[in-house]
């Protein structure tokens, strides 16, 4: 240390011979724990117990090529369209699917957004590269697009949804989509080009039953 620096530190009441404190030891964190931290608290314990969803997860896990650490990575695969009225557990099953893959040891980069948040995130604004964010979501190995068709639409949102879905369609990227809308309404809301691609790329899973949020616990 130079004399000048030593003098400055001493003048400020700092000990020039002191070394920086070592960082506190970190607990080892598993991939599942790391992923769980990004999952909204309500769905952090979600289990995908629907047979079509567990079958999808098994298929995706099997198709994964081994990554750098030897664990299978996610690659091309089918997508799911989870359809049903409000409160039937669509988002629960979708996060459950992500958790199932992680528990099966699949190395997984994933993103989740509702369509309303997607529109807000990608709205052009100064100092924000919306195009880059769209590309990030479009190329992400696994994407959860929650509540598709529930947000207010415009020509701009239609184009955005088309570009996102079309990229995932063309590259066979696994996508978990949830919606309240039946097929005919999905077509009117999202446009025929998006609906047509969804029909080909997704397996439909229909959830029925009462609104679980209003279920009488008694
Ligand atoms: N299989 C399940 N086991 C336990 N709780 C569940 C299950 N499925 C859903 N729930 C709970 O029921 C509530 C509604 O579920 P969820 O949010 O997934 O519904 P949704 O179909 O996505 O509704 P919306 O269409 O309004 O978004 C949540 O509190 C969720 O944690
Ligand atoms: Mg939901």
UniProtKB/TrEMBL annotation:
<dbReference type="Pfam" id="PF01695">
    <property type="entry name" value="IstB_IS21"/>
</dbReference>
<keyword id="KW-0067">ATP-binding</keyword>
<feature type="domain" description="AAA+ ATPase">
    <location>
        <begin position="76"/>
        <end position="211"/>
    </location>
</feature>
<dbReference type="InterPro" id="IPR003593">
    <property type="entry name" value="AAA+_ATPase"/>
</dbReference>
<feature type="region of interest" description="Disordered">
    <location>
        <begin position="9"/>
        <end position="29"/>
    </location>
</feature>
<dbReference type="InterPro" id="IPR002611">
    <property type="entry name" value="IstB_ATP-bd"/>
</dbReference>
<keyword id="KW-0547">Nucleotide-binding</keyword>
<dbReference type="GO" id="GO:0006260">
    <property type="term" value="P:DNA replication"/>
</dbReference>
<dbReference type="GO" id="GO:0005524">
    <property type="term" value="F:ATP binding"/>
</dbReference>
<dbReference type="InterPro" id="IPR027417">
    <property type="entry name" value="P-loop_NTPase"/>
</dbReference>
<protein>
    <submittedName>
        <fullName>ATP-binding protein</fullName>
    </submittedName>
</protein>
